[in-house]
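S.,

Sequence below, as promised.
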Amino acid sequence: QVQLVESGGGLVQTGGSLRLSCAGSGRTFSDRTMGWFRQAPGKEREFVVAISRDGGDTRYADSVRGRFTISRDNVKNTVHLQMNSLKPEDTAIYYCTAGLRLPIGWSDSYGGDYRGRGTQVTVSS
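The prediction came back faster than expected:
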């Protein structure tokens, strides 16, 4: 069992930055790929990024590659998502997730096995 709690969301202007954090509990945290998904009002869930158990492999959605950076600390059981050059279309609830698949297997259709409650990110134009 893995419990996930997100933080760091908020309101930012276009071009600004935010850093999301996800605190995990449970002894299997370091055994799982970690990821972020987002969902905007009226839209389907969208895969954002995933990072492997040891942090050595990542997979980014085309829409965020080059602007977002994921990292993890298995000692502190935390995952971070640094979001730069934010755009209004990045507005969504961002969810931290954990799963067994390798990052290459993550997509819009695979959202991991555990998910936090989410944190709201709003980018104003």
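The CA atoms of residues 14 and 87 lie 5 Å apart.

Coffee later?
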